[in-house]
Structure formats: C-alpha cells, structure tokens
Design a protein that fits this description.
Multidrug-efflux Transporter Regulator, Chain: A, Domain 2, mainly alpha, 4 helices, two-stranded antiparallel ribbon, elongated
Length: about 90
C-alpha cells in the first residue's frame, strides 16, 4: 500500500526552506563528487580548459585570482573565484 502526502505551502515558507537547504545540498553534492573549493595549478588549468603554461601567464600578469602563502610558493585557486573570473571574461567578449 503506497501512501501519498500532499501539502500546499505558502511561497514565503518555500523560499525560506530553499534558502536554508541550498547551502547544505551544495555541500553534500561537492562532498559526494570529492570536490573541494581549492584547486592547485594543474586542477585549475584543467577546470578552465587551459594549459598550465597559459594559467601561469595569467597569474604572472595578475589577470586571474589566486593565492600563495609567500611569493614563489605553490599557487592555489578558489573554484568560486575562477567561476566569477570566467563569467567576467565572457561578459567582456
């Protein structure tokens, strides 16, 4: 015997639930995919479909967001910042 429950909820309540659930769902999906927000140079280049050489040229020119512990150290890239950078480049074209 299947039981079906149907509720009508006000849009305001649905929006509130969605706002609270969205970050949790995103975190679970990232975890399930084995993704983290931080990428090294090779991962960032793959993510952006660039060669590592092209990526390093962009970082040298400070045309792409990245972080380093100290100058000359390994580069790290935040996935969300790369998404924003890519969206900005598309808007420029």
């Amino acid at each position: 015997m299947d039981t079906e429950l149907s509720l009508r909820l006000p849009n305001e309540l649905l929006d509130s639930l969605a706002d609270q659930l969205a970050p949790r769902v995103a975190a679970l999906l990232q975890e399930a995919a084995g993704r983290t927000d931080w990428l090294d140079s090779g991962e960032a280049a793959d993510y952006l479909c660039l060669s590592t050489n092209a990526l390093h040229k962009l970082t040298s020119a400070r045309r792409i967001p990245f972080e380093q512990d100290v100058p000359g150290a390994k580069l790290y890239f935040r996935r969300s910042e790369l998404d924003e950078w890519r969206a900005g480049r598309k808007a420029e074209n």
